[in-house]
Amino acid sequence: MNYSETLSYLFSRLPMFSREGAAAYKKDLTNTIALCAYLGDPHKKFPSIHIAGTNGKGSTSHMLASIFQEAGYKTGLYTSPHLTDFRERIKINGNCCSKEFVIDFTDRIKEQIELIEPSFFEITVAMAFEYFAKEKVDIAIIETGLGGRLDSTNIIQPLLSIITNIGMDHMNLLGNSIGEIATEKAGIIKPAVPVVIGETHPASLPVFLNAAYASKISFAQEKRYVHDWLFQDSFLQVTIVDKEKNEYHRYLLDLPGFYQTKNLLTVLEACEVLTEAGWKIKEEDIRKGLSSVKKSTGLLGRWDQIHSYPTVVLDVGHNVDGVKAILTQLDLCNYNQLHWIMGMVKDKEIDEVLSLLPSTARYYFTKAQIPRALDEKLLQEKAAQLGINGEAYPEVNAALNAAMEHAGQQDLILVCGSVFLVAEVDRMLFNKN
Q1: N or C: which end of the chain has fewer CB within 10 A?
Q2: What is the secondary structure of 395-408 as a DSSP string?
Q3: Distance CA 106, CA 42 (A)
Q4: β-strand 235-242 against 247-253: which pairing, if any?
Q5: pLDDT in tens, 298-326
Q6: What class, spelled out in words, does domain 304-430 have in CATH?
Q7: Of all residues in the chain, what percent carry a pLDDT higher than 70?
Q8: Does residue 63 carry a pLDDT above 50?
Q9: 425: closest CA among 402, 404, 399?
Q10: What is the mean pLDDT of the chain?
């Protein structure tokens, strides 16, 4: 098989959560353990950091990867889902794994695929572990898919676990309360392995403390706080106060979303824990890494401005907390009229998200081209019941073209509601500008 044929095989042969939803989710580590055993347990051949959370785990993973790269470490990064290229999931020092590796790996493990029928995610996790072991990375940053306790990535024994936050998402799989979801996320905490918690909630705090009874636990927001911030061109300048040392540190982030300030506190605490453990991370490495996350790792879709006059922004926020963060960001922006392009998948808290939307925006309802996507007309109808009116479009670029026709030079066009919707935006539409 060539690369295209290999991807077609993986996408069509294996159950894929991003397309099919809960039916593709395996609440069991058996397949991942079996696949990795067949490969000689590659996950045991490199140090790792494990990151879970409802929101922010992707940004946190990329920030840490960028910092480790600046510190001179050969850094593996496993994240999901991908936006435009499958190989975005598996990177070393910001470079995607090779097409040849994907082909060879799939050919080598095809017999096991036919035998145990793993999910798409289980195969990609094993693929990432094999690549990092083969390439002898100094460290790998591993992001969970969803949950934690039964997530395929949870066979690793990391040197640090991180949980960014807990919110109401994937309730059909993880539980119907903050406490239940926190229990699943806290499943990545291992005895004697330090853990950093980004944000806590009255219902999640006792869960974390109980899960980490045999581990050193740090709460990022207890150690530092945001003193001030300002937007500087396409950067976010943040001044952080270290409470224990009474020190002020200023950082320039190339991820300009205000919500990144929370992730920044988590990353800084993680760096301190890792430095205490012997990893050589200097303050200058942290500064340079944070200012070049996009360039170093290729991260996309986090308050990602792709055009000016009108401003066009893509954001992968897709649940209640994610949309609340977007609304906070919008309050900090200057624009005349907001044009909101929205598409969601069926298993999200759709009514809850729609109830948050501002009545003053102009709406364009659409859908990603995947089976899980909610029909744009049904989304339009649900929104109308809440007093949010707009037009419906069969795919995101049709909606984007319509928004561009209606928008003035000082307007803002936002695309959000689904990772997969953002992935389908044709950035070439703005190539001439």
Answers
A1: C
A2: SHHHHHHHHHHH--
A3: 16
A4: antiparallel
A5: 999 999 999 999 999 999 998 898 999 99
A6: alpha beta
A7: 94
A8: yes
A9: 399
A10: 92
Grouping H, G, I as helix, E, B as strand and the rest as coil, residue 389 is coil
* Whole-prediction pTM: 0.93
Give the torsion through C-alpha atoms of 44, 140, 75, 280, to 10 deg.
Answer: -90
Q: Which residues make beta-bridge pairs with 224? A: 242
Would you say 116 and 35 are in contact if contact means Cβ atoms under 8 Å apart?
yes
| 278 three-state secondary structure | coil
- Spatial contact of 398 and 371, defined as CB atoms under 8 Å apart: no
* 3-state percent helix, strand, coil for the chain, nearest multiple of 5: 45, 20, 40
pLDDT at 16 over 70: no
What confidence score (pLDDT) does residue 175 get? 65
**What's at 279, amino acid-wise?**
W
Taking Cα atoms as reference points, which of 166, 144, 146, 147 lies closest to residue 156? 144
**CATH 3.90.190.20 domain extents, the chain:** 304-430
Highest-pLDDT range among 81-90, 144-153, 405-414? 405-414
Tell me which residue has tokens 């690793």: 156
Convert 91-156 into a string of H (helix), E (strand) and C (coil).
Answer: EECCEECCHHHHHHHHHHHHHHHHHHCCCHHHHHHHHHHHHHHHCCCCEEEEECCCCCCCCHHHHC
Q: Pick the residue with more confidence: 267 or 214? A: 267
Alpha helices in 156-259 (DSSP H): 171-174, 178-185, 205-211, 220-223
CB 200 within 8 A of CB 213: no
The DSSP bridge pattern shows strands 160-163 and 48-52 to be parallel
pLDDT of residue 19: 47
Q: Cα dist. 13→17, 31, 34, 152, 396 in Å?
A: 13, 16, 18, 18, 27
Kindly report, as residue ranges, where domains of CATH 3.40.1190.10 are found in the chain: 3-297
